[in-house]
């Protein structure tokens, strides 16, 4: 389903028409997963082989599997991607329904497109789903990509000093099944104000990261 008109974005070498679509996970066929897996390997590979490893074969997810995806296409194929999964998290023991956002990626030749562009397309979907908050975690290397959402656009709030506990997507011998990270937390107020986000310094996903 088309959820936004095509937008023109500046790429390093050309102006590129990107057409955005919303895809529920049950709508994806094998060919879709194969195309997305290749896109993720090429997008995450430059940051290290380990980051591209989960997407071997036709696997188009790394940890938890999204229920809906926002996918940008252009003449060369997949241009950008954001995934969403509704779940309950705990913040210092308080249960909270969120739409977790993850699997952010932009094709390397389209860095000018930016994560902020993808999230503007995702924002109406958050409202359609009626969730109180969108939630995601941001590693320090990606902080600058969210600056426009937090500052000029005011769609999100970044929080530091929060530890996030998740399960590993797979269980290995001699490796803890739980991962604890000190990351930046990004919160998108949707059905409730940011003032209603529970105070706390520990977030439990009780599942793998999206």
TrEMBL record:
Q: Which family does it belong to?
A: Belongs to the NodA family.
What does this gene product do? N-acyltransferase required for nodulation. Acts in the production of a small, heat-stable compound (Nod) that stimulates mitosis in various plant protoplasts.
Where are the annotated coiled coils located?
Answer: none
Which lineage ranks, top first, belong to the organism behind this chain?
A: Bacteria, Pseudomonadati, Pseudomonadota, Alphaproteobacteria, Hyphomicrobiales
Q: Which GO terms describe its cellular component?
A: cytosol
Q: What is its EC number?
A: 2.3.1.-
| Keywords (A to Z) from UniProt | Acyltransferase, Cytoplasm, Nodulation, Transferase
Q: Where in the cell is it found?
A: Cytoplasm
Q: Name one GO molecular function term.
A: acyltransferase activity
Q: Looking at the keywords, is Coiled coil present?
A: no
Q: What is its main location?
A: cytoplasm
Protein name as annotated: Nodulation protein A
- Supply the enzyme class, top level: transferase
Please give the Gene3D superfamilies that the UniProt record associates with this protein: 3.40.630.30
Domain of life where this protein originates: Bacteria
Q: Which organism is it from?
A: Bradyrhizobium sp. USDA 3139
